[in-house]
């Protein structure tokens, strides 16, 4: 699944380097935008990696920052070229959370809190189909089918024989009781969760109802971490019309502490498996 050139990660690294050059120069994004006769929002989008960066953009920015080492300029321009390549997910058309997929594809580890449903990487096809259809009732069958296929292909990151994604999931107990699709679909889904939780790189805990108010009460989020030290951790919060990506160390640290509280409040791994197994048997009746 992971490729040698991940366009999302390339854009992100390039944006970080361009921000560093601007800060070394002591310029604000507004000043740079004024020099280049572009909007400040464009400079911000280039720096946060949410927008494709052309080689011309890099050349112009390096000119403003007075980068004299041509090797640096050429390296940044090559990164810009690589960042415009398409990831595997682009073959499926316009995917709303394509930026996230790019990050997930390159991540070394992922921590997820999911309050409502079984998280996407652990879903069976039948469960995913029911979730996508229920969550997008006005979308065409073709669009929903594409979203399901993308979700299933993403799961290659946790089943890969070499360097699989390390996954830690905290599921609210509500996600186990919400009947998605049918009772049979739920039985198969919970059995699938139990099977995957046996893998050494996957940990699943359940946050029980009895905990009451807890650190994740405000909703779902994920924390992505990367092997390359140059790539800072990212907190991802999924929205209906837009998603939120938090990269500032203070924000990441706050969500990390919240996640530690969630793990401490949840059932341990064995007790979580026992609960999932019991509910799976209940669905079989």
From TrEMBL:
Ranges of residues in domain HTH cro/C1-type: 18-72
InterPro entries: Cro/C1-type_HTH (IPR001387), DUF5753 (IPR043917), Lambda_DNA-bd_dom_sf (IPR010982)
PROSITE patterns the record matches: HTH_CROC1
Protein name in UniProt: Helix-turn-helix domain-containing protein
Lineage: Bacteria, Bacillati, Actinomycetota, Actinomycetes, Kitasatosporales
